[in-house]
């Protein structure tokens, strides 16, 4: 019997949409199935009363995002829609914000580090410079650091390097516990993307790329996939009581979800999937009646990192209206309060009112006037927020990447152990190339190409 599709893609986050885009360009019939009523996954944004609220948190960079920039160009998105970030980054220490975080000048200015720690930062930067080619974000398992964790790496240096640089960056940007996550992926990524002065954001919300991709694809939203069953040559995708057959299926979902959907993968695949654990994430968006923000001196900050050494509730505060003025109406503000990874598990099941109260109370320490401003708040949670990049995953990745092609492929930032949209786009390109190498192009007499985004009945 002829399959219904060439390829069924499960998940309409950036990885799924980019995979479908590549396969459709190659002439295959592709359909994307998404459980949520919208596309974008962790890069979804919603609009409310003139505010643009990013449910996840992401930015791109002028460097280190080659695949993303190629995709932006192919889709014809104007370059001005990918705008520089407003404001600076800072870390909180000893009662005030210390700007210059992750900038080369930190060796001289401190950026929250004491004199001895600055010397050790220079040593760490020297290590990255000497072994630059080996810190490859596509192959983090090959770096000279092996599988040591961030905390183990920090043990070689002054404690401030952990407490006011490695830990706050890992906790805020990746949701990582430094005792669990490997050092190599994070250092490889930071080296590649460069300093914050080169970072960018989508002016119309972080879902801009997802919306552009979905506009030219067959996407079925509100459609939960329950199981993917394979034989030697094809895959069956069970959606409720229906089974859709395809020559290949691509699971573009977090690794723990992929394990549940495809229960009998090959041993090397199963070993890697089981090692790819995720941390949950939680944030609160505060829609303010005036533009409040954390500040260093008189200058508002785009992002303030709050280290574990200083705060047990928050990992950071983003001033979205500083990040880009289009995020909030004129004269108003938008803050994102990021929960500390240590507090997220208990907050996931707490009433939203309690979550908002805990995070906003903690934020008043850093944002003067927050207690007296009017605010409407939204809580955003992702149980599978970000891949942890553990030493176990790092050690099993090479065999996973060398596996034979089959009717089921995988895409997502966890495949690259790079928690970012660039990791998702690179994984998508890899998955598409593996599918194409196996199918060797479109089947004859393709069904009519559908290019609509619709909601399942």
TrEMBL record:
Residues 14-436 form the Amine oxidase domain. Signal peptide: none annotated. Pfam families: Amino_oxidase. This is NAD(P)/FAD-dependent oxidoreductase.
């Amino acid at each position: 019997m002829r399959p219904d599709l060439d390829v069924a893609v499960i998940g309409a986050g950036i990885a799924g949409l980019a995979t479908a885009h590549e396969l459709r360009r190659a002439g295959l019939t592709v359909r994307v199935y998404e459980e949520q009523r919208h596309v974008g996954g962790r890069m979804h944004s919603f609009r409310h009363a003139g505010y643009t609220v990013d449910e996840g948190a992401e930015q791109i960079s002028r460097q280190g995002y080659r695949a993303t920039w190629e995709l932006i160009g192919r889709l014809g998105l104007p370059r001005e829609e990918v705008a520089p970030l407003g404001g600076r980054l800072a870390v909180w220490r000893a009662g005030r914000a210390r700007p210059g975080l992750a900038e080369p000048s930190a060796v001289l200015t401190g950026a929250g580090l004491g004199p001895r720690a600055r010397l050790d930062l220079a040593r760490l930067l020297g290590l990255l410079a000497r072994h630059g080619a080996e810190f490859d974000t596509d192959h983090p398992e090959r770096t000279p650091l092996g599988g040591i964790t961030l905390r183990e790496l920090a043990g070689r240096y002054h404690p401030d390097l952990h407490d006011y640089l490695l830990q706050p960056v890992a906790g805020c940007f990746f949701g990582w516990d430094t005792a669990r996550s490997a050092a190599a992926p994070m250092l490889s990524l930071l080296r590649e993307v460069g300093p914050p002065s080169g970072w960018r954001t989508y002016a119309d919300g972080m879902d801009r790329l997802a919306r552009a991709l979905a506009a030219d694809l067959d996407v079925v939203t509100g459609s939960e996939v329950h199981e993917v069953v394979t034989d030697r040559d094809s895959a069956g995708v069970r959606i409720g009581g229906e089974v859709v057959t395809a020559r290949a299926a691509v699971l573009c979902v977090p690794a723990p979800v992929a394990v549940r959907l495809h229960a009998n993968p090959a041993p090397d695949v199963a070993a890697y999937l089981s090692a790819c654990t995720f941390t949950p994430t939680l944030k609160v968006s505060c829609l303010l009646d005036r533009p409040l923000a954390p500040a260093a001196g008189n200058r508002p900050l785009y992002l303030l990192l709050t280290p574990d050494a200083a705060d047990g509730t928050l990992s950071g505060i983003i001033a979205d209206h500083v990040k880009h003025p289009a995020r909030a109406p004129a004269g108003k503000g938008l803050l994102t309060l990021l929960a500390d990874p240590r507090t997220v598990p208990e907050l996931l099941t707490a009433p939203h009112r309690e979550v908002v109260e805990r995070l906003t109370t903690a934020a008043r320490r850093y944002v003067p006037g927050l207690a007296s401003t009017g605010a409407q708040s939204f809580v955003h949670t992702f149980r599978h927020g970000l891949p942890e990049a553990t030493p176990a995953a790092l050690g099993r990745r090479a065999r996973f990447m060398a596996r034979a092609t089959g009717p089921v492929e995988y895409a997502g930032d966890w495949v690259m152990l790079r928690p970012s949209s660039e990791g998702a786009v690179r994984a998508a390109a890899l998955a598409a190339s593996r599918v194409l190498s196996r199918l060797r192009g479109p089947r004859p007499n393709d069904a009519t190409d559908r290019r609509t985004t619709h909601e399942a009945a």
